[in-house]
Design goal:
By secondary structure, the chain is of the alpha/beta class. It has one domain: Pyruvate-ferredoxin oxidoreductase, PFOR, domain III (Pyruvate-ferredoxin Oxidoreductase, domain 3). It is built from eight helices and six strands, in the order βαβββαβααβαααα. Strand 4, helix 2 and strand 5 form a beta-alpha-beta unit. The longest helix is centred in the N-terminal third of the chain and has 14 residues. It starts with a strand and ends with a helix. The relative contact order is 0.16.
Length: 190
């Protein structure tokens, strides 16, 4: 099997690190060699956080180069646009439609770009955009956006059954948040 590449991108504090941990755990239990590499920007200050998850028979490097990502999971719309150059021609971007103003927008030095989904689609990228924040709130917490997005991502893994995802959630999420996170995953999966 050829190595597959997934990028998880977001803004600090959104739960992208739990998402990468859960995905890595899931893929390990399925018998894949897995490399996970976390790249932190100014995550405590609302900056970009990027995680690379690579899996296959044998993975030699944790790094994903431009044009190599089979899937990019984005917790915020501008982050999807910022990292889209890493997507393969036949790749997909699974993104939350939530917007979080970066510092230049907050200070008035710039405007948040409009119509980002359309702009990415116009460049030939398959974009699976959803309001993950509303679904997370429906599940019981705005902090469950990560599980909503993993639920949507799971639709692109035909070879991994839903119960394997549920087992990974149970292994990685604290017991007191387990039901909420399972519900968020189910809502994202659709």
């Amino acid at each position: 099997m050829a190595t597959k590449n997934i990028m998880i991108v977001g803004v600090g504090g959104q739960g992208s690190l739990l998402a990468s941990k859960l995905l890595g755990h899931l893929l390990l239990t399925r018998g894949y060699d897995v490399k996970v590499s976390e790249v932190h920007g100014m995550s405590q200050r609302g900056g970009s956080v990027v995680t690379y998850v690579r899996y296959g028979e044998k993975v030699y490097s944790p790094v994903i180069d431009e044009g190599e990502a089979d899937c990019i999971v984005s917790f915020e719309l501008l982050e999807a646009a910022r990292w889209m150059r890493f997507a393969k021609k036949d790749g997909v971007i699974v993104t939350n439609t939530q917007t979080i103003d970066p510092m230049p927008v907050i200070t008035g030095a710039a405007e948040y770009p409009s119509q980002l989904v359309e702009k990415m689609t116009d460049k030939g990228i398959k974009v699976d955009a959803m309001d993950a924040l509303t679904l997370a709130e429906e599940a019981g917490s705005a902090k469950a956006v990560n599980l909503v997005l993993l639920g949507r991502l799971s639709n692109y893994f035909d070879d991994i059954p839903a119960d394997a995802w549920q087992e990974a959630i149970a292994a990685c999420v604290p017991e007191k948040f387990l039901e909420l996170n399972k519900k968020a995953f189910a809502l994202g999966r659709g």
